[in-house]
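DM between two lab members

TW: hey, do you still have the Nucleic acid-binding protein entry open?
JB: yeah, one sec
JB: this one, 392 aa:
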Amino acid sequence: MSYPASVAKLTSPIKELVQSVTESNPSLFGETDNDKKEVEGWIEKVGEVARPDKHKDLESTLTPRTYIATNYFTAADVALYGALHPIISKLEPAQYYSHPSITRYFDHIQSRPSIRKSADALSSYPIVTFDFENAPKLERAADPPKKKEKAPKAAAPETTNVPVASETPKEEEKLQKDKKKKEKAVAQSQEPGKNVDKKASAGGKTKAPAPDDGEPVPSMIDLRVGHIIDVKKHPDADGLYIEQIDLGEETGPRTVVSGLVNYIPIEQMQDKWLIAVCNLKPASMRGVKSFAMVLCATSKDGKEGGIELIQPPSNSLQPGERVYFEGEDYENAQPLAQLNPKKKIFETIQPGFITLDTREAAWINPATKSVHRIRTKDGVCVAPTLVGGSLS
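TW: and the structure you got?
JB:
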């Protein structure tokens, strides 16, 4: 096959690696005209962006991405991997810990079957092992509290012999009422959709309810588009997979444990896009802590009838893409930071999850029987084949 001019400019052995991986797959140079331009542009500059003094910029670029040029694996990823290898392979743990997105990206690319096959044949790119077990935990910093702007102090009146008038009793009473109204409005704005406790505390302030007070609603659940970048069987449990799922977070992929070994072959889990439940309380499963749950459809005939991963729309393949429930009560609501296990919120909502006759994932309100499809801004999430399946 003929290669783009950018490939001819690559140095050895990067050029040979790109040619080997793409030899039987020209689509790796881009599936659309725009993608082809992006891929060629990145190939032309991989030598520059892979330099150690450019790693800070590359780290920022890769933080929200799984692949460098498009939302799927391309020749640009092959070239960047080849350019990074001699640098990354010499780093000590403290050095690659400081660039978690680059490390996550590099490890994902080097593990792809097509890369390993060509790299092993060329004997130029041995596998690089990383000590993820002892990596320091990266915690997302909370947004600093907003400071209330102080009103400018009124200028002191010029000293005269004229006395300054104070408010009349009626004016004073009006000011106090306005102040209480403002305090109540602020409390209500902090908890949208919730009834503020009308009983004032001793200090005169209203007490806002907890975010998860009241009836559980589906919008409390944090659903996002995720991408499996690595999957293996749990070493101590025959029925469990351990997945690394990219959710577009600065801290890198989340470790997720799923009981799908007996229902979905590992080849069908690799590189898979899915919907993840992201605000369950982390739980240990046979010694491995799981930080999310993959959303699956189970056949109406039970597990023996099949289990399938719920799929995001093909035009929403962006890690971390928001997934929500249709309906004015839910579309713009913010999910809880973490579901309280004691309040059984997910367990209360889950019986209403179903796949419709169209295979679309939805929640049916048990009280009103209204249907609320599960979607991204670009389309509705679906099960590959199951109709009438339950979701969990």
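TW: got it. The longest strand covers residues 223-233. The radius of gyration is 27 Å.
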